[in-house]
Amino acid sequence: MAYRAVDWENRKYDLTCDQVVEKPVKVQMRKGKGVVSGGDIGGFDRWDVEVQKIAQGSLPRLGGVTAVLFRCSPQPGNFFSQELRIYRTGSGGEIGRTATFETPELPPQYQPKSLVVKDGRIAADVKFYEPEDSHASGPSTLRHVTWTWGDGRFTTHVVDVRPEDRGAAVDLRHQPVTVNGMGPLKLGMSRADAAKAIGSLIPGKEGRRVCTDFSVEGAPEGLLLRFTSDRLVAIYVMRPATKISTRSGVHIGSARDDVLRTYGGEIAATTPDHGGEELVFAPVAAKFAGRVIRFSMSNGVVESFIAGEREWARIAPSCGGPE
Asked: Is 197 exposed, middle or buried (0-12, 13-18, 19+ CB in 10 A)?
């Protein structure tokens, strides 16, 4: 069945203002905002509602889903609540909502920009109130929350994020890739140190292969960090991360001649085992020994590239490792 594209900011939703009322109330959103009034909204004059974040991705057993985070402010009042509901991307039909956080303090606050649907789960950073926190000061404890689907419902998983483990978030879209790393990411870092350096989580478990490629929450899709034995060994860039470039400006879509001209006598063409052509930049300076940038070519343009230690900086399907 073919569906018309859903306009998520201009449609009607069923909301409870995070359990202000038990029975969902219909709220018509226009340009991401809506107002609802009437006798079924918990004794308030109105609710002011807005869409704070829309995130899309795929979940096991569900396929394409859209997560919509709502901010609901009952009036008159000096508080707001947030409600996360999940829909089928194709039809717009609701799958369900995440459970209300049962806390003895004030309701925790989602950090809207952190909401993603990635790696088979929904994830967001959420700040929780501690007993010493006040309404004026706001919540102080940051936790990373994920939701997985199973048995007809979303299950919540909460992990503490220590302040010392998370620095200021770095926008990796604007960090150039070099043979040494990418911005604050340096080859040889542990996954914990890498996450601290960029202020973003690097979720997932190491696979059974000798090395594992991890995505970064909030980073461009197509950017992967390759680790082996908890050591960063390569930065892998593939579609759709076409805006990320090397320090010399080479990116996905760059022409073969431009790559050769950029790196001059320090680049050579090779034929990998899986076919096609690769251009390998291997700087001659002693301080860069053993580190390369490998460009995978397709129809005369860069299709993907990977930078790092030579034995690990290999284009998939090869993960890398000593030959």
From this structure: middle
pTM of the model: 0.53
Read off the pLDDT of residues 250-290 as tens digits, 9 standing for 90 and up.
999 999 999 999 998 899 998 887 778 999 999 988 888 89
Do residues 99 and 145 touch, judged by C-beta distance below 8 A? no
Higher pLDDT, 133 or 279: 279
What confidence category does residue 45 fall into, taking pLDDT thresholds of 50, 70 and 90? very high
